[in-house]
Amino acid sequence: MSMSPLPENLVLSSGPTDMKEVVDTKSDDPSDQDGNQGIISSIDKNEPLVTRRELWSYYLYYNGDNGVGPLGYTQTLFQGLATAAGYDPVAGPGSSCLGNTASGQCVVPWGSGTKSVSSVVLVSNGVSFAIMTAIFTTIGSAADYGTFGRWLLFAVTVVCWAAQYACMALTSPSRWVLAMILYIIGFVSYGATLVFFAAAFPRLARNTPHTRNLREKYENGEISPDVYEQEESLEKNRISNISNVHGNVGFVITYALNLALLLPMMSNPKVDNYVLVL
């Protein structure tokens, strides 16, 4: 039996003696090679040009959508009301969790028994994440198609605002269950605003005057696909980074306004309700 190696550019077929030559399909044409280096996403010619005013509207939106209310004070208000409504399991029903002789434990009625306040808060967080998972894995992808994402963003923003303003009605410990519901609604809708807001970045980036100009150059063969893809990616990053800066600025301003109420009204039992309005 011959031990010499098989000739190059040959492959064995399923038969014992048949051989076929491997054909190198790589083109020597530089234009063909450039065309195979990357895939440029299609663009809808009907998409409007993104103006500076539209970009700033998104920046200022994120300035207010900073999460201080739904992620901070709503949960604080919910946990505070639940603690005030609960009792010390060591002392028994009718006792206070906030008394000087309290053991540090606190339970509230839950189903046919009781559950600690900390467990109730964890349950509400778990329910919130379960709802967000269900939403984002079903209708979440709809934000990437056409103009539907803008309407989704508008809808969840209104729901988030409504949930926070409804917290003004949480004026007594007996409403801790309502506080839990409003917290879940606010938390879920706030998370949805972040997802649907970020989904707008690709559309914004590919329709800025700078990117449109690059697109024309690419279609005219003046720049390569790699250059265009890199520039579009940088445009997305630029919009995202500026949005994050505005979000942090809004975060600081909102907390400063909150402190303007919290410090002089710290003894007022409804101070958290007033802060949520901001």
UniProtKB/TrEMBL annotation:
Residues 1-43 are annotated as: Disordered. The keyword Membrane applies. The keyword Transmembrane applies. GO terms for biological process: amino acid transport; autophagy. InterPro entries: Atg22-like (IPR024671), ATG22/LtaA_families (IPR050495). One of its GO terms (cellular component) is endomembrane system. The chain crosses the membrane at residues 117-139, 151-171, 177-201, 245-266. It comes from the Eukaryota. It is found in: Endomembrane system; Vacuole membrane. Keywords: Amino-acid transport, Autophagy, Membrane, Transmembrane, Transmembrane helix, Transport, Vacuole. Vacuolar effluxer which mediate the efflux of amino acids resulting from autophagic degradation. The release of autophagic amino acids allows the maintenance of protein synthesis and viability during nitrogen starvation. This is Autophagy-related protein. It comes from Rhizopogon vesiculosus.
